[in-house]
C-alpha cells in the first residue's frame, strides 16, 4: 500500500516540476524568473571569487551555493523524466563539475572559471524568450545569442588565463590582467605588453584568437543580416523566415506567422 501511494505522488511532483521548468504559464514564468535571478547572483559571486576567496564568509557562501545547485540538479533530473536525456545535456555535466568545485574549493578552485558557463542555462529557459519579447528584442534574438556566446567565451578564457598564468599575483591585478590579455587577443589588437610565457601560453593565445574571431564574425553577421523570425513551416519545416513573409521560400506553403514573431 505505501508504494501504491508514493509512486503516484512522485509522478505528480515530477509533472509539476516539468511544468515549472519548461512551461509557459504564469506560474512557470515566475518560477523561471526567480531561477534566473538566482543564477545571475551566483554568477556574480563566481566573478567576484578572486576578490573574496581570502575572506571567512567565502566558504559559507560557497557551500550555500553548492547546496542550491545540488537541489536544482535533483529537481532538473526529476523534471526530465529520462535519466539518459538528462545526462546527455552538456549543461548537466557543467553543473556537476561546478558542484564539485564548490564542494572542494581548496582542491578544485583552479577550475572555478567553468562556473560562468551557467549563463548558457539562463538562455535555455522559456522566460528568456519572454523577456526578449517584452523588451522588443525577439526579432534580434540571434544578435543577443551571439553576444552572450562571445561574453561567456571572454570570461571563460579570462578565468582560464587567470588560473594558469596569473593565479599567484594579487587577485585584483591578476584577474584584470587576464581580462585585458583576453580582450586584446580576441580582438587581435595584440599590444604585446602582456603575453603568456612558454609553448602552452602560445597555444592558448592561438586558440583564443581563432575561436574569438569566429565568435566576432558570428556576432557581426547577426547584426548586419536582415531580421528573421522563427516559425517552422508546416509543409517543409524551414524555421527562419522574413518578418513579413506570407509564403515559405523553400516550398511556397502559405504561412500564418503571429505578430512580432511570437510562436
TrEMBL record:
One biological process term in Gene Ontology: monoatomic ion transmembrane transport
Lineage per the UniProt record: Bacteria, Pseudomonadati, Pseudomonadota, Alphaproteobacteria, Hyphomicrobiales
Entry keyword rRNA-binding: no
Keyword Ion transport belongs to the record: yes
Domain Potassium channel residue range list: 152-224
InterPro entries (alphabetical): K_chnl_dom, K_chnl_volt-dep_EAG/ELK/ERG
Residues annotated as transmembrane: 27-48, 60-79, 91-122, 143-166, 203-224
Record's keyword terms, sorted: Ion channel, Ion transport, Membrane, Transmembrane, Transmembrane helix, Transport
Protein name: Potassium channel family protein
Species whose genome carries this gene: Peteryoungia desertarenae
Amino acid at each position: 500500500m505505501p508504494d501504491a501511494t508514493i509512486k503516484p505522488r512522485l509522478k505528480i511532483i515530477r509533472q509539476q516540476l516539468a511544468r515549472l521548468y519548461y512551461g509557459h504559464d504564469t506560474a512557470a514564468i515566475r518560477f523561471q524568473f526567480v531561477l534566473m535571478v538566482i543564477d545571475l547572483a551566483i554568477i556574480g559571486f563566481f566573478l567576484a571569487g578572486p576578490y573574496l576567496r581570502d575572506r571567512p564568509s567565502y566558504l559559507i557562501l560557497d557551500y550555500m551555493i553548492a547546496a542550491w545547485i545540488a537541489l536544482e540538479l535533483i529537481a532538473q533530473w526529476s523534471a526530465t523524466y529520462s535519466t539518459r536525456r538528462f545526462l546527455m545535456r552538456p549543461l548537466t555535466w557543467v553543473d556537476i563539475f561546478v558542484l564539485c568545485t564548490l564542494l572542494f574549493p581548496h582542491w578544485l578552485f583552479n577550475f572555478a572559471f567553468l562556473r560562468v558557463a551557467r549563463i548558457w542555462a539562463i538562455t535555455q529557459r522559456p522566460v528568456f524568450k519572454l523577456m526578449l519579447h517584452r523588451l522588443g528584442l525577439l526579432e534580434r534574438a540571434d544578435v543577443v545569442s551571439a553576444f552572450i556566446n562571445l561574453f561567456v567565451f571572454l570570461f571563460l578564457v579570462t578565468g582560464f588565463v587567470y588560473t594558469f598564468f596569473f593565479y599567484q599575483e594579487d587577485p585584483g591585478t591578476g584577474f584584470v590582467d587576464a581580462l585585458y590579455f583576453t580582450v586584446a587577443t580576441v580582438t587581435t589588437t595584440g599590444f604585446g605588453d602582456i603575453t603568456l610565457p612558454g609553448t602552452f601560453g602560445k597555444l592558448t593565445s592561438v586558440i583564443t584568437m581563432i575561436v574569438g574571431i569566429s565568435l566576432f564574425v558570428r556576432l557581426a553577421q547577426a547584426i548586419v543580416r536582415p531580421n528573421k523570425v522563427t516559425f517552422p513551416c508546416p509543409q517543409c519545416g524551414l524555421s527562419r523566415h522574413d518578418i513579413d513573409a506570407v509564403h515559405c521560400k523553400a516550398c511556397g506553403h502559405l504561412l500564418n506567422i503571429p505578430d512580432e514573431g511570437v510562436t
